Each structure stands twice: as C-alpha cells, then as structure tokens.
Amino acid sequence: MTPGPLVCDACVVLNLVATGREVALLRAAGATVVMAPRARAEARYLRGPADEAGRPTLLPADLRPLEAEGLLAVRALEASDASVLVKYASLLKDSDAGCATLAETTGAPLATDDRKPRRGGSLEAE
C-alpha cells in the first residue's frame, strides 16, 4: 500500500529537506507532498550551524528538486473550502489552517508538527 498524496505543513517539509534525501525518501514511500500556498511560502529556511558567536544561522531551503521531480505540488484553496478554512483559522496559524483545510477537503492525510491536529485529530476549541 502506498501513501499517495500527503498534505504537509511547512515544518514537515523543512524536516524532510533537512535530511538531504527528500527525493529518495518520498520515492521509497511512494508519496507525494501537497502544500497550501501559505505553507509553501513559509518553507524558506533551514537552521544552519551556529556562527562564531554561537548564534544560529539560516540556510535557504531548496524545494525545487521536489517540485522538479513532481513530488511537491502547491494546491490553492477553492472558494468552496471557505467554511472549512474559517473553522481551522480560529485555531491554527494561517499556513497550518490552509493545510488542515486541504487535508479535510481532499481526504488526504495531514502530516504536521502542530500539537492540536496530532492529538486525536480533533481541532475543536478546547
């Protein structure tokens, strides 16, 4: 059984890219990544090594190999997704709300580091 499309938030994609084996890992899993536009825009930097003063540095996150191989797609939200987006926007930041909306409206699994969706899948207000 292959996972197929997975809706991923920016942190999940950044962690995948940080491995340096993102294409091979997705191919081995038979998966592709779908992101909401705001999540894709958020996936810009990886944490780099500390500088001489011990401060963390940032390195550009290159998602182009995933896009070039057809393993990463950005899917815009549809007007018909608005009510679902409103539900999630009251509980999550915009980029995560967009990904949760995509997962719900497409039926694809959501890969996230956000605690609310990971706790039993419930995003209802606590």
Any descriptors?
single chain, 126 residues, alpha/beta, Rossmann fold, 4-stranded parallel β-sheet, two-stranded antiparallel ribbon, 7 helices, 42% helix, globular
Condensed summary:
This protein has helices at residues 10-18, 22-29, 37-42, 64-68, 82-89, 94-106, 115-118; strands at 4-8, 31-35, 45-48, 57-60, 72-74, 110-111.
Biggest pleated-sheet summary: 4 strands, parallel
Helical amount: 40-55%
| CATH architecture grouping | 3-Layer(aba) Sandwich
Per DSSP E runs of 2 or more residues, the count of β-strands stands at 6
User: What gross morphology would you assign?
Assistant: globular
Portion of residues in beta strands equals: 15-25%
**Sheet/helix structural class:** alpha/beta
CATH topology heading: Rossmann fold
Radius of gyration, whole Å? 15 Å
Low-confidence stretches: none
N to C succession of SSEs:
EHHEHEEHEHHEH
